[in-house]
Amino acid sequence: MADLEYLGMNKFKKFCYRTKNSFVEFPYKISNFFKTIPHKLKNSFKKVGSSLSEFADALIYGDWKTRLSFVFFGFGNIVHKQYLRGFLFLLYEIVFAFYMIGFGGQYISKFSTLGTVATVTLDNGFKKVGDNSFNILLYGVLTIFIIFCTIIVWISSVRQAYNSQRMTEINKKLSYGRDDLKNLGNKYYHTTLLSLPFVGLVIFTIVPLIFMIFVAFTNYNNLHLPPEKLFTWVGFSNFSTLISGNGLSGGDSEKFAYTFRIVLLWTIVWAVLATFSNYFIGMVVAIIINKKGIKFKKFWRTCLVTTIAVPQFVSLLLMSKMLATDGIYNVIITKLGGNAVRWLLDPSIAKCTVLLVNLWVGVPYTVLSCTGILMNIPDDLYEAARIDGANPYKMFTRITLPYMNFVMGPSLISAFVGNINNFNIIYLLTGGGPSYDVNMVATAGQTDLLITWLYKLTVNDQSYDMASVIGIFVFIIVALASLLTYSKIGSVKNEEDFQ
Question: Are residues 61 and 136 in the same domain?
């Protein structure tokens, strides 16, 4: 469409045109995102390739000291009197060897089967201990990760030995132990500072995350609970069960597929409505409070801060009691001659109720954020707009709203992701209810999100395999939504610039 045709449209037609284009362009945006992945992978492989190239050069052109470093970590550094580096590399190799011989090797050897001999209870009450699939998977993942780290340390040891050889050949000064310690506090201070948090991230986040991903490819559920019953690999059967209703599962495959579709739809609808209702209503309230002529501004802001000060789980538990069938709201309605409302028992009303309660919980945060932004919008912009004859609606759409969107863009993405994983408000308010027909749906209730359904599958049904698959889908949805929108918002495209 030509620019003149677009400019000739009224506001409603322009809105419809932009909305239609957003839906039309969305598949292309996803396609372009995936097209950039090979390019990024290519750059990553180039960096890895340069390291491996230097590693190969060490094997071809290295002297006997460097080549012995392929077998004994740090040998080349020790020979070149870089004792601190050399002994640290050698110590790592010794610890790794003891770990593999005494612990890790037994789990790696059984990793392909996840165990073959289950624990059996004998007639005399004693147990004949066998394999434990859970421990094999957990420690197998940990051992694989340690092997991967060892390969990196091995390559680094050889490269440093080769670098020391080349620096010696050109009579260049080497870095010794004292220099290395000084560099840890100067040149590599960032590495020293972040090393401990990084180790914690690996132990408490990355390894459990990898373990959870592996569980999605097993049949680890209430029918296969170790050590009495072993679980094994089932490939992509769980994914097939969740998407199409075909595959292996401890429950009814068709139920899982149907439940996943309706819960996914409600999760997306909930995330969109909860995010943008909080944003726009909070913005309107902030504009009203910030407007000249409004009295008791500090009082209204204090009320909002007081609402935030109360712990959210306390507010939600209290609200669930107040909205119960015999709660205070229904008591008041009944006293006034009305009929009790099924706030949390009727499916449609329950969904509207959680959205309204989410406004009560979330709007104060938005109001405070928007208030700070409104105070920083230059008054000159509004004065110039008034002189040009702009009405309040024009000033809102051309000044306030663009400014808000520019500053609040990243916050909106965070809010959307948070609402997809908003466990508290659903679980504490409705518990995921009201329930569906048990013959149609697997475990989930009508207000359950993917995250609360995942919780029920693990805690109530012990269906860890399907819960892991759902967790992977949640990650994919969140990652795609975040990456696609983050790269398009103005605060990223025009960083440090507002137009």
Answer: yes
Alpha-carbon distance of 48 to 104, in angstroms, equals 27
Position 49 scores a pLDDT of: 66
Distances in whole angstroms, Cα of residue 215 to Cα of each of 133, 233, 290: 11, 9, 52
CATH number of residue 382's parent domain: 1.10.3720.10
Tell me how far apart the alpha carbons of residues 83 and 189 are, in angstroms, rounded to a whole number. 21
| Number of structural domains in the chain | 3
* pLDDT > 90 fraction of the chain, expressed in percent and rounded: 35
In the chain, which stretches have pLDDT less than 70?
A: 1-8, 11-51, 125, 247-251, 437-441, 487, 490-499
Domain co-membership, 183 together with 153: yes
Concatenating the DSSP letter of every residue in 330-383 gives HHHHHHTT-PPP-TTTSHHHHHHHHHHHHHHHHHHHHHHHHHHHHTTS-HHHHH
Q: Are residues 190 and 281 in the same domain?
A: no
> What are 221-231's pLDDT values in tens digits?
888 888 888 99
Whether residues 346 and 220 fall in one domain = no
Same domain, 106 and 68: yes
Distance CA 364, CA 74 (A): 58
Q: Same structural domain for residues 214 and 313?
A: no
Q: Is residue 242 part of a domain?
A: no
Within 8 A by CB and 6+ apart from 419, the residues are: 270, 271, 274, 275, 358
Per-residue pLDDT, 484: 77
Q: Cα separation of 400 and 405, whole Å?
A: 9
pLDDT for 441 equals: 67
pLDDT digit string, tens, across residues 165-195: 999 888 888 888 888 888 888 888 888 888 8
Q: Which residue range(s) make up the domain with 76?
A: 50-237
